[in-house]
Amino acid sequence: MKLLVTANHTPFIAGGANYHVEGLVAALRRYGHQVECLRLPFHYGETQIERQMMFAEQLDLTAPNDVLVDRVISLQFPTYGLHHPAHVVWLMHQHRVCYELYDPKQASPALAALKPQVEAFDRRHLSGAKHLFANSPRVAERLHYYNGLMAEPLYHPPHQAEHFTCGDDWGYAFYPSRLEPLKRQMLLIEAMANTRTPIKLLLTGEGSQRRQLEELIERLGLGNRVRLLGHISEQEKRTLYAHALAVAFPSFDEDYGYVTLEAMLASKPVITCTDSGGPTAFVEHGVTGWKCEPCPQALAAALDDAYAHRAQAKQMGKQGREAYCAKKISWHQVVTKLVYSE
Fold first, then answer.
1. Whole-structure pTM over 0.90, yes or no?
2. Domains of the chain with bracketed CATH
3. Rounded CA separation 323/283 (Å)
4. How many angstroms from the chain centroid is the CA of residue 258?
5. Taking Cα atoms as reference points, which of 64, 85, 9, 79 lies closest to residue 41?
6. Is the pLDDT of residue 11 over 80?
7. Which InterPro entries match (predicted)?
8. With contact defined as beta carbons under 8 Å apart, do 270 and 198 qualify?
9. Which residues are bridge partners to 74 per DSSP?
């Protein structure tokens, strides 16, 4: 088949979304399809978003340049506003600042005016898709709550899933992620100040909160136990997973959460929060990890539990790997659903 995959392009901002898009395109090609990826530039700002929605709605990809396209698979807002008779949406997330992150007390007049436009855009185009999938149960829940639409959760494996391994734990908790407020590294560092065991914490990634996190570590006197490692390679990341005692992922209302799946592939238990969204669909409290209240004391108790009962933590990690395998997460399943669903 001739397939088009549509997604956004945000210059100089990388993350899990890129792995998602690139992974899908590569999988479709492995299964013999002719695939092009159409990435539209995405700019934040209310005026720009209005223009981007209007532009997407004007795109008819039925036969660009007189080449018939069999199916279009859209992943991101607002690219799913385009037209094609066999248009499938695999929703990564909506424009979150107009939904679960919207705060009427903090919203600017421009954002308040944009919110109903985005909601109407989503209802109009997502309801018209030939098939509607979500990349996690949490994304599907939001879509149903805010727009009254039903989407089927469809899981995909993390980047280079086959390369994750498990090694002996070296007594640290590991958290790889962008250093941004929603990822809540600050909460985890505050938890480290409340621990009673000598567990260490390794944080990787870059982001807007780097300086604040450095200042917090210094203020709490945690310089010998908490380290900010910055950007690392994928191979280095897998090594840090392999030797972690546990993986911490206290992010707020995550869409899917590669960190959880990567930890399970590395046979490591996951420490997450009850309001962390995507990860809570995979972590079973006391079996494959810990679901904590989002406060320093609860996270500290989980960190201490992992360190004080290391054999149990190892067993939980093993059970996490088994739980991942039981879900049969694969690109084969993704391609079958997206391409052949009637």
1. yes
2. 2-155+330-340 (3.40.50.2000), 162-326 (3.40.50.2000)
3. 9
4. 6
5. 9
6. no
7. Glyco_trans_1
8. no
9. 6, 89
Residue 269 pLDDT grade (very low, low, confident, very high; cuts 50, 70, 90)? very high
Read off the pLDDT of residues 272-298 as tens digits, 9 standing for 90 and up: 999 999 999 999 999 999 999 999 999
What is the Cα–Cα distance from 219 to 89, expressed in whole angstroms? 47
**Residue 331 in tokens:** 């690109």
The strand ranges marked E within the chain are 2-9, 34-41, 71-74, 87-91, 131-134, 152-153, 172-176, 200-204, 226-228, 246-249, 270-273, 289-292
Q: At 72, phi and psi to the nearest 5?
A: -115, 135
280 within 8 A of 272, measured Cβ to Cβ: yes
CA nearest 54: which of 87, 73, 81? 81
Which residues are bridge partners to 228 per DSSP?
A: 203
Closest CA to 227 of 212, 237, 217, 219: 217
Q: How many CB atoms lie within 10 A of CB 273?
A: 28
What does the pLDDT look like over 28-70, one tens digit per residue?
A: 999 999 999 999 999 888 999 999 999 999 999 999 989 999 9
| Residue 293 DSSP SS3 | coil
CA-CA-CA-CA torsion sign (79, 95, 248, 155): negative
- Among 104, 261, 256, 275, CA closest to 187: 275
pLDDT at residue 13, as a whole number: 67
